[in-house]
Write a sequence for this structure.
C-alpha cells in the first residue's frame, strides 16, 4: 500500500495539484480501503473537508497506479 506522500507526489506529477491528506482518506473510504482514525479528528461520522468531486478521479487514478484497487 502506498503512503500518502507517494500518492500526493504521483497526483502532483500526473495532474498538477497536491491532494490534501484528508481528501486521500475520504477517497480510501469511498473505495472501501482501510483507513485509520486521525487522533485529531473529533467526529467519526462526518468529514470536515471531503474530497471535491472534480479531484476524485485523479486520486482514484493514483490508487490504480499503486495497485490499491
Amino acid at each position: 500500500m502506498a503512503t500518502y506522500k507517494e500518492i500526493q507526489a504521483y497526483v502532483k506529477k500526473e495532474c498538477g495539484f497536491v491532494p490534501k491528506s484528508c481528501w486521500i482518506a475520504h477517497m480510501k473510504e469511498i473505495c472501501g480501503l482501510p483507513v485509520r482514525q486521525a487522533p485529531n479528528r473529533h467526529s467519526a461520522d462526518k468529514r470536515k473537508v471531503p474530497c471535491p468531486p472534480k479531484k476524485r478521479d485523479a486520486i482514484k487514478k493514483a490508487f490504480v497506479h499503486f495497485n490499491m484497487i
The helical segments are 4-15, 21-30, 53-65. The mean pLDDT is 91.
